[in-house]
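Hi, here's the filled form for the chain we discussed.

Project: internal
Contact: R.S.
Residues: 212
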Amino acid sequence: MKYQGVIFDLDGVICSTDRYHYLGWKALADRLGIPFNETDNNRLRGVSRMESLNIVLEKSDKTYTEAEKQAMAEEKNNTYRALLHQMSPADLSDEVKTTLDALRARGLKLAIGSSSRNTPFILERLGLGNYFDAVADGNSITRSKPDPEVFLKAADMIGLAPAACVVVEDAHAGVEAAVNGGFDCAAMGDAKEDVRARYHLNTFGDLMKAAE
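And the returned structure, exactly as it came back:
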């Protein structure tokens, strides 16, 4: 096989938490009197919490201290985590689980590379707490996508070079991160047509052909 490992983004690839993110940021923006809609929310995909907050605050006519921003980010995260308690293994689609099992049966190492600090909690809610060979997330990196740090860390954790792995992403920032790190990328969702990706997936199951 061309690849020995697959590194997955989490949000929008393994599962969808976009709605919960949107509701969390929307609640904060409403409290601050800042306009925020789902189009604005799309700009936050694949970037860190603090970078997302700065994007939200672009429409504010006020300036805030770093301490105030940290408190806002924590407020949003608390709202988001409360919403995540609604998640369960039922939120993991049959197609995703079947494909993951098939890739593992082929002997591929599977890892997560996500900027989210809530990655372990989400995986637990989905019933995937101990499923992946490695998890690199926002708790273990200092630079978020499009920096390739999270993917490079994931590859290192499974003992593989970037050229031996394919990254699966649904955000343009994630595709850029993969390419920056020397990985081939399989793009899906909003990033499906990104010309920087080597593979363009209509469905998660299409990954089986790309991983051959």
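Let me know if anything looks off before we file it.
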